[in-house]
Amino acid sequence: MCINGCYDSIVKRVIVSVSDEIAESLDDYLRDQEVAPSLSAVLQAALKDYLAERGYLRQASAFKITPAGEGSGLTDISQSHDQYFSEAVGLMRNRSPQ
Fold first, then answer.
1. CB 3.0 to 4.6 Å from 52: which of 31, 37, 57, 89, for a disulfide?
2. CA–CA gap between residue 7 and residue 90 (Å, rounded)
3. CB-side exposure of 3: number of CA atoms within 13 Å?
4. Which residue, among 19, 25, 16, 8, has the nearest Cα to 47 in the 3D structure?
């Protein structure tokens, strides 16, 4: 159980007061959405951006795949992946000490 500074395992509930201008803007934004997100989701996204811009929250980095060089492998892996996986597991079992 976390007491101080442990926000990963609990949800912090807060009451937020906003000006009439912000409240009206939020209402306008939510009304204009085809599928309106919850107010909580909008506020969380805004807080994440605010904290990340100031260096207090790490943004998740984009997933990057480095393609293999041309001609580096077999051409039917996507079609025969189960067979290749089964063969690889079999090789690993044969190498491990019993």
1. 57
2. 43
3. 0
4. 16
The 3-state DSSP class for residue 73 equals coil
The number of beta carbons lying within 10 Å of the beta carbon of residue 74 is 8
Please give the C-alpha separations between residue 64 and each of 15, 52, 61, 75, in angstroms, as whole numbers: 38, 21, 9, 22
Q: Which whole-number Å values give the CA distances from 60 to 11, 19, 49, in the listed order? A: 20, 31, 12
Please count the residues of the chain. 98
pLDDT in tens, 21-60: 999 999 999 999 999 999 999 999 999 999 989 989 887 7
Bigger pLDDT: 61 or 29? Answer: 29
What is the rounded average pLDDT of the residues 13-24? 93
Q: Is the dihedral of CA 75, 81, 84, 89 positive or negative?
A: positive
Among residues of the chain, what percentage have pLDDT more than 90? Answer: 38
Give the type of residue at 87: E
